[in-house]
Design goal:
The chain is α/β, with parallel strands linked by helices. The chain contains nine helices and eight strands. The protein has two domains: 30 residues, no CATH class; 177 residues, Rossmann fold (3-Layer(aba) Sandwich), CATH 3.40.50. The protein binds zinc ion. Zinc ion binds next to helix 2.
């Protein structure tokens, strides 16, 4: 009821071409390059990305992340779920672990985008979410730094939350993040886990190599 009222007062517009009535029109969604792919990279068994980089994806993620439009996750959710269904079939074998944001960033943004992705998967497919990682330091935005600065910026910034270990058992861990730029944040998180916990590690991100 409220939803339909809102649609009358504020009809959704395509985020790319601004055409009315939909968040991403059929025409523009053709430019979202949905190409699920897995990469073998230490310390993961494999890491999966949902999309190839495209201007359309870049625009959606930018609006989502930096313009605080969390509802835009709905554009991506079907693609996310299709990818999860291909690569992580047995829901009971896995837990989703979001890359945590520093509390200050959450206060600014109002949400953690990695957590939104976890919730999207969990709601539709019943995967458990485990907040295994805590952020110990505030960091600068990776997108603003060069290669060496990125690595330094995110080294030793995570620790394990021991209160969450009981949720983990022997399940495989899927680390979840929105995008990989240099991959340093994801790697830093993965190494923190790998050094202390024997469970198998996987990752899923929307895309690789996008600022
Ligand atoms: Zn459009």
């Amino acid at each position: 009821m409220i939803d339909s009222l809102l649609k009358i007062v504020f009809p959704p517009r395509c985020i790319v071409c601004k055409k009315n009535d939909t968040l991403l029109c059929d025409e523009c969604s053709k430019n979202l390059r949905f190409e699920p792919k897995d990469y073998v990279c230490y310390p993961f068994i494999y890491a999966v990305s949902v999309f190839q980089v495209s201007t359309t994806l870049r625009l959606i993620v930018h609006q989502f992340k930096y313009k605080y439009k969390e509802y835009l996750i709905s554009i991506l959710s079907d693609y996310l779920l299709m990818t999860v269904d291909i690569y992580f079939k047995e829901q009971s074998d896995y837990v989703l672990v979001p890359i945590p944001l520093h509390q200050k960033r959450i206060d600014e943004r109002g949400f953690n985008q990695a957590m939104l992705i976890c919730e999207t998967i969990s709601k539709k497919r019943n995967y458990a979410i485990c907040h295994l990682l805590k952020r110990t330091k505030e960091t600068k935005q990776q997108a603003l730094l060069n290669k060496k600065e990125r690595k330094d910026n995110v080294s030793n910034i995570f620790e394990i939350d021991s209160n969450e270990l009981n949720k983990l058992g022997s399940k495989n861990i899927i680390l979840v993040d929105d995008i990989i730029t240099s991959g340093e944040t994801l790697k830093s998180a993965a190494l923190t886990i790998k050094n202390l916990i024997p469970n198998k590690l996987f990752a899923i991100t929307l895309s690789r190599g996008i600022k």
